[in-house]
Amino acid sequence: MKILTSNFPKLAFLLLLLPLITFSQRRPSGIVSPEVLPDNSVIFRIYAPKAEDVRVVGTWNRRFAPDVMSKKDTLWEVKVGPIPSDMYEYDIVVDGLPMLDPNSKAVTRDGAYIQSRLMVPGGLGDLIDAKQVPHGDLKAVWYDSPTVGPEQRRMFIYTPPGYDQNPKKKYPVMYLLHGAGGDEEVWVNRGRANYIIDNLIAAGKAKPMIVVITNGDVNNTATVLDREAFATPKTTPGGVGAMAAGLFERSLVNDVMPYVEKNYRTINDADHRALTGFSMGGYHTQNISNANPSLFKYIGVMSMGLFSTFRPDGYDKEKHVAQLKALQKNNPKVYWIGMGTDDFLYRTGVELRKLYDEIGFKYTYRENIGNHDWNSWRMYLTEFAPLCFK
Fold it and tell me: What is the DSSP string of 135-186?
């Protein structure tokens, strides 16, 4: 193909203009979505002139019922709420196809789930938001994990405000675990753990603490963009098999904790260690604390109950009870259980509490109207963290 040099200025101009054209199509000027009103009602808008059906599906509705948008010329719009103060995830569904809100830059990720974010102020949302308070530091750390494999693995470590200014002060540690399908980023990206702890400390509701946010997926060393793209697949079974393999639990005790206690100014006794997690992380929390009854005085189980159905080699009730009695002798200061009324694991929670009641194992139970979802887990962290290290 022959290109005349006289066309180069025009071609260069078009190449410079193309990104602007694409951007303007994706984010039309003047369209605001979502728009949070003073009463915490929210208006969603999208430019979709050829669409026939547009809806918003968000976690503010625990049944995930869609809010149907109405068309005004080329613009689709719906007003929802008022919505209680919190952080929510949502999709805009255009003719049956879920998509991100093209008018919002705020997106979050949990494993394969990438969705738009809505923040509603005035209550719980203010504990989740990045407020103008002293902030701790968040560092991505690579560490050796021979328990899992020869590769280095990644985790995040949060240090509280003032950590670097006082080199002699030592701190308690919370180990924060995620659910199946997640990774070490999820408690930061969608869980907002560092901002929650910032805001709790600033309000005097939580003690300054170090928070260790691990990657409980033994088949992958790190989140998708921070691991080797063409690494040899792991042989550990996926799904429930990987969750129940026991590798992560042993790694946290044998690899993670020694690294943290060697490289950070931690108070290394059970009175200054907390362990908590949701779903798979709640399962891991139980396994770790049951097998190591003297390590943690603060234990939080979120959205997970009796794990008998997750044992590939069968559930040994006698062994479980013996572990619980050993844990009971070590007298945890807080053993906290949170469960949503619509959680698909709700019955397992009933069975867990039934067993604990049978043997007289003391715990605090918190039940909320909610699903197996981040609205529950973020709230649980805001309630469990203030109970620690008192």
Answer: --EEEEEEEE-TTT-SSEEEEEEEE-TTTTT-TT--B-EEEEE--TT--TTH
Sorted by sequence, the CB contacts under 8 Å of residue 251 that are 6+ apart come out as 145, 147, 148, 153, 218
Is residue 330 classed as helix, strand or coil in its secondary structure?
coil
For residues 272 and 249, give the distance between their C-alpha atoms in angstroms, rounded to a whole number: 19
DSSP state of 134: -
Q: Pairing between strand 152-159 and 173-177?
A: unpaired
Phi and psi at 177, nearest 5°, equal -115, 150
According to DSSP H, which parts of the chain are helical?
8-26, 124-128, 186-189, 193-202, 239-243, 247-251, 257-263, 280-291, 317-329, 346-359, 374-384
Cβ atoms of 148 and 251 within 8 Å: the answer is yes
Token reading at 242: 């990987």
What is the C-alpha separation between 277 and 175, in angstroms, rounded? 8
- N residues, the chain: 390
Q: What is the pLDDT along the chain (390 residues), one digit of tens a residue?
A: 344 444 445 444 444 544 544 444 455 568 999 999 999 999 999 999 889 999 999 999 877 889 999 998 889 999 998 999 999 999 999 999 999 999 999 999 998 889 999 999 999 999 999 999 999 999 999 999 999 989 999 999 999 999 999 999 999 999 999 998 889 999 999 999 999 999 999 999 999 999 999 999 888 888 888 788 877 766 665 556 667 778 999 999 999 999 999 999 999 999 999 999 999 999 999 999 999 999 999 999 999 999 866 665 678 889 999 999 999 999 999 999 999 999 999 999 999 999 999 999 999 999 999 999 999 999 999 999 999 999
User: Which residue, chain included where needed, has tokens 């020869």?
Assistant: 150
DSSP 4: -
Cα–Cα distance, 130 to 145 (Å, whole number)? 32
